[in-house]
Amino acid sequence: MITIIDYGAGNLFSVQNALNFLDLENQVSSDPKDLDRADGLILPGVGAFPLAMEKLRETGLVSCIRENAQKKPLLGICLGMQMLFEESEEFTRTEGLSLIPGKIDKIVCPYKIPHMGWNSLEFTRKSPLLRGLSEGDSVYFVHSFMAYTSGENISAQCDYGVKIPALVERGNVFGAQFHPEKSGEVGLQILRNFGDLTKR
């Protein structure tokens, strides 16, 4: 069972629709017991980092997510990925979940912001989430902020006038800056791979 974490600031049902399409058993929940019982967790997110973290704290799930991330796969998507890091400078400095070292700050590049649309992946290390994918496969992005972190935490990146971490991981914790649920067959394969991790 994959639990999609409901904290009032996520793109929940497009993620759930993708998991349903893949026949991956799932539920949407804000109940800590459901997170504890799950085989894997997905943390979606849209909007601004400070408000999302405030909502997450209001649910009382921060410590629950941190504890579960030590024992089972956790996938953060878009803003959910950014929340995995130590802090963000979006609007005001805000503490994140501190599951991956690094911080979130503005994309500094010569191109239009937000970074919106399809961009190809460059692999930087082996990752179970990249199984069945090929270098150059494209995924769908919508964001104005990016992760600044050590290369050892980055599995794939994209080029937008600057190298943007697209897929990050550390232990059981994975993050996709793009939207796999909106990225066609490539995104579905990533979610399928995540599903496989939850069955181990």
Note the main attributes of this structure:
single chain, 200 residues, alpha/beta, eight-stranded mixed β-sheet, four-stranded mixed β-sheet, 6 helices, 32% strand
Structural class call reads: alpha/beta
- Spatial strand arrangement across the major sheet: 2-1-3-4-14-13-12-9
The rough form would be described as: globular
Rg computed from alpha carbons, rounded to a whole number of angstroms: 15 Å
Report mean pLDDT, rounded to a whole number: 96
Largest beta-sheet characterization: 8 strands, mixed
Number of helices: 6
Q: Quote the distance from N terminus to C terminus.
A: 12 Å
Share in helix = 25-40%
Low-confidence stretches: none
Count of individual beta strands: 14
In sequence order, what are the helices and strands, one letter per element? Answer: EHEHEHHEHEEEEEEEEEEH
| Proportion in β-strands | 25-35%
What would you note in describing this structure?
It contains 6 helices and 14 strands. It has 200 residues and is an alpha/beta fold. The strands form 3 sheets. The protein has an 8-stranded mixed sheet with strand order 2-1-3-4-14-13-12-9. The chain has a 4-stranded mixed sheet with strand order 6-5-7-11, with helices on one face. Strands 8-10 form a two-stranded antiparallel sheet.
